[in-house]
Amino acid sequence: MHSDRASLGLKIAAVGGLLFLHLPILLIFLYAFTTEDKSYQFPPPGLTTQWFGVAWNREDIWPPLYLSLSVATIATFIAMILGTLVSAAMARTSFFGREQISLLIILPIALPGVITGMSLRSAFSIMDIPFSTWTIILGHATFCIVIVYNNAVARFRRLSGGILEASADLGANSFQTFRYVLLPNLGTALLAGGMLAFALSFDEVIVTTFTAGQQSTLPIWMLQELVRPRQRPVTNVVAIVVFTATFIPILIAYYLTRSGSETAGAGK
Amino acid sequence: MTSAPAILPERGIADRLTAIFWRHPRLLLFVLLTPPLLWLGVVYLGSLLALLLQSFYSIDDFSGVVKEEFTLKTYAELFRAQNLDIILRTLLMSAAVTIGCAIIAFPIAYFAARFARGRWKAVFYLGVMLPLWSSYLVKVYAWKLILAKEGIITWAAEGVGLSMILNAILAIPGIGGNSLSTSPMGTFIVFVYVWLPYMILPMQASLERVPNSMLEASADLGASKAQTFRTVILPLAMPGMIAGSIFTFSLTMGDYIIPQIVGTSARFIGLAVYQLQGTAGNIPLAAAFAVVPIIIMLIYLTIAKRKGAFDAL
After folding, report:
1. ipTM of the complex
2. Which residues span the domain enclosing A136?
């Protein structure tokens, strides 16, 4: 017999699954306050806020933080331009090779990061390109394009073609239509895509280890601490910084696209 | 009759370009697509080709310098016992993680798709999206804390008197170890945790498309709940499950951070690639190793496509 209420077992399994996804992250916040600095002892023997001050004064954290921020900003900027262009082309028209192009855009994120990373590493090695901030950005921008593209193309599809024709009928040229009609409508979707791309880039570690050379982004700094722990509580504080730097853009992106789905669909 | 023209006079270069684009839509398409395709074509496809090229080079055994001549020697090295071990271990782990994810993901996806309404729908959506997007490294780190010998699991097991069971699991050869954070079991748990959202989302999408009327028809025809589940819901959820498995399988296969931080020092494909290109300086063999997941994924994707998994993405 089929009933419209979920059984107790299903409810427990579903809610339990959600808790399984969230509780581990909360633990990071607790550990940032522990007084124990030699092991991962639970429960913490005592609580203190001193590690935030210690982390603030650690000079080896600031350069990686700056590098991560600048890489994420530039990579997001490049991805937003390229992603918007390709979504504008793919949204309405059908043309020869369209399927192949959509595969090409998705490939950098569909294949494991180690392949993207190793590919770039091989290319740099063959062409004798020295590692620099730009080699990191090159990799990041490549896999960020798909994030912007996904957000923008979804909005393009919901956008009624009628408003573009109306704009043309009223005498606007393509650039005016873009500036006054298209951009305001795409705005939140692009911003959301940009936020997600920023979060992805800020946090990326797998591709970066292949393209960074001697430089450290914040995730690489953290990875080194994980493999060879030096001062565990400082790592806990950095973990919170990394988590917040990715969490806030994601939340903003969610709220941007949630309200957008109602307004953007108004044309239809 | 007035003589006002139906066409507005041109106001400059922008208008002229608009007219050209209107008459030649292909030109606009060309202008839009050139920069992104140039970037992806040169940076990404170029790099993939470089990877292939490198994998056909070899390293000189004596000088350690890369010989830029075409050879299959490097690929032959993949078939050495120790390298085959790495590939086999990676495949086994990927398969186990995929199955583990599918089992845990199903109730979440099923509940979210069929029973969650209004506020709960949003809770489930955000509840899956946030862990999906939030920092990968922080998630792995959290599990290092949890699985540590002095960590929360050992503490909780002692608290409820289950230390015996924990120790019994750790004593199992093959998956156990000194503590959870240094055992293959620990690696498996972290993999399942990190890739779980990638399984839930496509699964939920395919479950949402199962029409209610089919379940009612199944009940009307006298099927029990278990029968409906086995013969109606599960087959219809299959494309979503396969779509999710593409992610969990591929991501596990390529990951090298998790086995490095949680688990034994046994190597996986990703770790082998990383170590070979770094400390060992053997870029050709690293490239050849990286080609292995590409080939496996191509085979996997061909099968998935036949099963209709791409409609569920």
Report:
1. 0.82
2. 59-257
